[in-house]
Amino acid sequence: MAQRERDYVLGTHDAEIDRLRFQHEVWRDEVHAAWRSAGIGLGSTVADIGAGPGFAALDLARLVGPTGRVFAVERSVRFLQYLRGETRDGAYSNIDCIEADLMHAPLALTGLDAVWCRWVACFVPDVGMLVDRLAGCLRKGGTAIFHEYAVYGSYQLLPPEPKFRDFVDAVYESWREEGGEPDIALALPKLLAERGFSIRSARPIGLAALPNERLWHWPAGFVRTNVPRLLELGRRDAAWGAEVLAALERAERNPASIFLTPTVLEIIAEKI
Questions:
Q1: Which residues contact 196 (CB under 8 A, 6 or more apart)?
Q2: Buried b (16+ CB within 10 A) or exposed e, 158-171
Q3: How many domains does the chain have?
Q4: Residue of 198, 214, 271, 212 lying closest to 29 (CA atoms)
Q5: Could you tell me which residues are beta bridge partners of residue 151?
Q6: What is the domain-level CATH number for residue 107?
Q7: Neighbour count for residue 151 (Cβ, 10 Å)
Q8: What are phi and psi of 141, to 5 degrees?
């Protein structure tokens, strides 16, 4: 596996692709509402920054139609291979796949109507540079749309499970040791203002799920895919992982359980 694939905190393996697909399905309504609010529609040119396997890019391609263009920007070769497979039959000829790491070089894109950035800023080591790169892609009046975590610590089980709290702490630790910041949305307003953006709108998004609800499988699925990843990275041992999964299983057997998701901050900012 290439170094840049190993560098992904959450990996690029099949289980992670499946998790990302389900994640996009769960968040699709919120995402489409953000795109509409930002003015994305037929004929728009949009970059999907950190596109992953391309689930948002495919939705954007349908939204902008044949007269629009979507640039799926992603540094993982494996993720881009997956997206290219999804577009191979020519149904999405308005998607361009761009292999790029914005921490290494700016994009050769200018004059775009919008850039979409979901759960990317929390992983990069220099968020100011990321915002600079996005500004360079946009036309005057173009919009940058962010969905980034503001209070990752709101991710919790009720009634409380101490071992699950340990899991959330381990996630914080792993991101920060790789140079990221889970609560990065708290820093975005200042960075955007300093780089020539005005904030058009902002809203927090937090979700809650019961064990019998489909949404439950989003926060629970993250536990089940990321516990093995933390063990693979050597950040915790197998006994710890078994205890975290046992805590999750206890919660799933309790009909009074509630899963709270990390709080996301949606920011729509306009380049001035």
A1: 135, 271, 272
A2: eeebebbbebbebb
A3: 1
A4: 214
A5: 263
A6: 3.40.50.150
A7: 16
A8: 90, -5
The answer to whether 244 and 227 have CB atoms below 8 angstroms apart is: yes
pLDDT on residue 6: 42
Q: What is the pTM of this model?
A: 0.91
Q: Is the pLDDT of residue 90 over 50?
A: yes
Mean pLDDT rounded to a whole number for the chain: 93
Are the C-beta atoms of 110 and 229 separated by less than 8 Å?
A: no
Q: Quickly tell me which residue has 């998607």 as its tokens.
A: 95
**What Rg, from alpha-carbon coordinates, does the chain have?**
19
Name which of 254, 229, 263, 236 is nearest 163 in CA terms: 236
Q: Which domain holds residue 248?
A: 3-271
* Half-sphere CA count of 50, side-chain side, radius 13 A: 21
